[in-house]
Amino acid sequence: MNLIVGSQSGFEQQRWLSGKRLFMLLLSLVTALVCFVPSPSAFAATVYVTDNGSTVVVDTGAGLVYTINKSNGDMTSAKMNGTELIGSKPSHIASGLGSATVTWSKSPSGSTVNITVATSTLTHYYASRGGENIIYMATYVTAEPSVGELRYIFRGKGSVLTNVPTPSKNLNNTGAIESSDVFGYSNGYTSSKYYGNSQAKDLSIAGVTGNGVGVFMAYGNRESSSGGPFFRDIQFQSGGDTEVYNYMNSGHAQTEAFRMGLHGPYALVFTTGSTPSVPDFSWMSGLNLQGWVSSRGNVVLNGLSGMQSGYTYTIGYSNSTAQYWSTASSSGSASTYGLKPGTYKMTVYKGELGVYSENVTVNAGSTTTLNTRTINNDPSTTSTIWRIGSWDGTPLELLNGQTIAVRHPSDSRNSSWGPVTYAVGSATNKFPAVQFRGQNSPTTVTFSLNATQAAAAHTLKIGITSAYNNGRPSVTINGHALTNPSASSQPDSRSVTIGTYRGNNTTFSWSIPASYFVNGTNTLSITPISGSSDLGPWLSAGWAYDCVELGS
Prior knowledge:
Blueprint: H1 19-35, E1 48-51, E2 55-59, E3 64-69, E4 75-80, E5 83-84, E6 92-93, E7 101-106, E8 112-118, E9 122-129, E10 134-141, E11 150-156, E12 175-178, E13 182-184, E14 190-192, E15 205-210, E16 213-218, E17 236-238, E18 242-249, E19 261-271, E20 297-305, E21 313-318, E22 323-327, E23 334-339, E24 342-350, E25 353-362, E26 367-374, E27 384-389, E28 421-423, E29 434-436, E30 443-449, H2 451-454, E31 458-468, E32 472-477, E33 480-481, E34 506-512, E35 520-529, E36 542-551
Parallel strand pairs: 20-26, 28-30
Antiparallel strand pairs: 1-2, 2-3, 3-4, 4-5, 6-11, 7-8, 8-9, 9-10, 10-19, 11-18, 12-13, 13-14, 15-16, 16-19, 17-18, 20-23, 21-22, 21-24, 24-25, 27-36, 29-36, 30-35, 31-34, 31-36, 32-33, 32-35
């Protein structure tokens, strides 16, 4: 705004403006300037950076001030409106890098800062914009960290950040009941950092809070992580410190090889306690991050047929460098955006069970359209005499299936695991979700056959979602032993005791001659076998069930 109080004719041409009018105009101008509050789009706020030689201190100008150690890249302080949120240990990538080269730069406008923490195999980025209480991050790796886990850990002050998700809140426990990471309580309850975690497809933003403060992880892009859409990993833990994690790679029931490259972007968002929305990461494309891919493509699937009502269908894409997914509509359509160029295996999941697959090529700057695909590998389309559970890749509908992700199997809140004798036709949730050799074996199934059915051969199928300690089913029917199968290929780690039933879906199948059946009541017995000894009743050879059926 320009105020003209003179011209080429000097005072002669301003006589028309009386003193009163001039005063009022000046007053209006001052009032407008004082009351004008620029929106973020008006201009970028300044971010303030102080390099003390040993540390870099960033002040976003909105309440967040954080400090990065220049010798190793650790975050040693994070204050929100003056309240220190870092606990007894610094926050860092992996378990701390030990040493690293730390550099930083600001944008020419002074509105953004990018701190680079580099080693020979890992580069981690901290970035912030003025006026935002957010630490944007991304991590580029060419090798897995020596600890075998790629994760960012925010180690918060437990006395300040007191509101933590209950399944992972380990305060006041009576000691570890499994390894050093699953804890028990005097009432028989359990907790662990492994419990209460979301599947990868549901990761958005979640955090911990205290009196007037909150720290939230925006999990961002999962394309370089491993395990697919249903994978779970650690998000929170509280004991002394309150910890907030973004796990990008780990050996926790991992079903596929680690992916290298750029992980993220992701972010720590600081608030006064309210849950924030997911921040916009697109501005980071201008930071020249190593491994950033801007040119991408899309896939549109139209007309998927063979879907069954009552199930969610997820469309997954994966190759050695990236993974993506989207949810199909009830009409069988799904659009997946922002894939790196390349050839992917597309898998259609009914629940968590793959029922269709093909290879799909994605090109930069274009959309690949897939029309009229028909599901061709759904085992539930087979005719049966009886079926226990559903072919959906999960044990959720079975006994204690809903509790696997939130507590240890031994938790007193669980129903008794058995051993169970299950009569076909009974409620599905009476059949155990997990078979433990040391705890609830055998599982006995009783069923009736008429004369015609008993005079015919049938196929028995046992579907599992994961297995531990090479556990696989040894089966007898009316006292006749069936051939023992080989072990399935599964992750070499704990599974159901650390909050996941997800492994490699496998179906064991037996052709049973008619001579093994009887007219009337038949008895089937299922017991785990393994070539290895067990560590305990819960850490014993076994598996999580998907479905059991006898074909017609």
